[in-house]
Amino acid sequence: MRKIVVTILLLAAYNAIAQNKAEKEVQTDASEITVFIEGAQVTRKKSVELPQGKTAIKFVNLSPFIDAKSVQVKANGEITVLSVNHQQNFINKLDKSKELTDLELKLKSIDEKINLEHTHLSIVAEQLSFLQQNKTIGGKNQETSVTNLKETMTFFSTQLSALKLKEIEHNKNIHEMNKQRSDIEKQIKTFTTKKEYPNGEVLVKVDAKRAGTYEFEVSYLVNNAGWFPSYDIRAKNINEPIQIIYKANVRQETKEDWRNVKLRFSSSNPNSSGVAPELKTYYLNYNSTPPTYNIKQGSNIAKGTVISAEDGAPLPGASVMVKGTTIGAATDVNGNFALTMPSNGGNLLFSYIGFKQIEMPFYGNHMNITLEPDNVSLEEVVITAYGINESSEERAPSSRVAGTRTKKTDSAKIRGLSSLAIPSEMVVKQTTVDFEIKMPYTVLSDNKSYAVDMITYELPASYQYYSVPKIQKDAFLIANIIDWEKYSLLEGEANIFFEDSYVGKTLLNLSTATDTLSISLGKDKNVTVNREKVKEFTTKQFIGSKKEESRSWITTVKNNKNQPISMIILDQTPISTVEEIEVLIQELSEAKHNKATGEIKWEFKLEPSSKKELTLKYSVKYPKDRKLVIE
Length: 631
Fold this sequence. Notes:
The chain is α+β, with helices and mostly antiparallel strands. It has 5 helices and 38 strands.
């Protein structure tokens, strides 16, 4: 019986050893990255030498944030993929970057120096205490000579001065080193949270018909990465085309560096304001008031700070997105953000590595956001990671989608290499657009935002000034672009440069665009607009059972530029909602009147250094026993 047990144990040990020998660890480098609005697809390729028969291949040192359901493995040659499993190795954790390790060593060294200075201070304090306790000269019945007194005072003064100077020097050193320590801590926070993450692994079981070298391709979706578009819009003057520099702001904290990869940006998502004002319809009824407009400087700007609920520390590099759009930003080193909001507002999504994503409505111009640590996300990944068992034939992704079209552009530039114009390729699919950067690119896993200039467009535009002086006495320059759909633009913030000067930010809002895209280039102080009520025409009189009130407004537009301009001025009249209230238009200065909304629109050209006066006059009749609030 004992021999049987020993035999069984030996066989089990042999099988275990044989199984371990059949398991092959493989290190890979990322070769292709497709970055989505949220998340990224990572592709790794590797040639692996295999014996004949079944082998377990373990692709190691991968991101801990892999979406297990997205793992795909493709193998070329006479080989069958039997199973694919994603797992996480909590024993062999991912190595920190060399830069982060060096910073942590510096922090440790400074802490040791600070402790040493505190030790010196305590020694000085002991010496000072000893000196104070032994400053009595001579005994109780012993007289002290003048010479002894002088010598003692000199000694005491010299020693006390030396000790006090040492104390000042040590405190100064501690102060300087604390400043250095604070700077290093801030720099460390720009890399990552202090939490350690497990090593992501993909275990692939294969059956090779013969020994040889086989090409493997492993791809998967990973969180803690993404991009959002932004633009530089430049207009030299109102006679030349507009220039739009299309940029991708990419960030990633996947715990794996993307070095010299083929980079692609996809518009899909697998997971003082320069915005011109708009009129509200002016409905007139009893107990109603004219529409009000709350115009404040920067009222369309969402600002705030994102901090950790764990220790109250700011979270640099946190993602801030307008829900349902591609409008986004990232927090700075102090956790602060600023984002131009659409005119209709919206909800904001806040996310950061290792923290729970939250959604908040835009409720004001300063928002303090606190994110809670997500302690269960990795455990959830482990639970869902196993049981993926698909062949490479079923999982292999197609390289092109039916119905796609490709555009090549030669004007795309990579930030930092503006002197080297490189080509890019824009692949337009059925519902998404991909931008392929035709140059190896590196994005480190440090959660910093890298701006990549993808494409530069020179677009023909017609320019027109637009003003709603009832709301805001400013003239906004509007660039109108036709056929804008073929440029595959996305919603995003834009920096505006007009006449070689930075004038502010605006929002490229495509949700309201029709066949013509109108881009607000901000305010032009060389075009002045003023709207005033004419008091002598503001009257009230009684006619029979009716009461009649008249209102008159004069709007003055002046062109202080040295070239002619095209201008649109909007105003409005009230709209009656009951039959007994009658609105009579008396003068419009040849404006177009929309009777359904009450909108008054003047459209005209204005020569240099000239001005134009526009008159709007109307009266309202209503029963004299009723009260009506009229603007």
